[in-house]
Fold:
Amino acid sequence: MDLEISSLLTRSPELRHDRMRIAGTGITVHRIAILSNLGHSPEEIVRKYKHLTLAGVHAALAHYHANRAEIEAEISADEAEAANLEAEFARQPQIA
Structure:
């Protein structure tokens, strides 16, 4: 039985901001890319997220490497938004 790599990834507008994710899961290619860039191997990722398959993680990594500039830009934008939210929260008056 041959498995099409494209069947391992999916996206839908109502989930994860329409970002590509491993089919049947909520784990996005972005999350796999971040974990990989932190030095986690595909095997370590599968051990951490037991519902993932090694094939799914490799498909996510292939998609990431094929679309690296776009995904890196989105990750950077997410990090900037998180930093802005943290700064905004820190400026809020503290309620005792």
About this structure: Residues 5-91 form a domain with the Arc Repressor Mutant, subunit A fold (CATH 1.10.10.10). The helical segments are 29-37, 42-48, 54-66, 68-91. Residues 68-91 form the longest helix (24 residues).
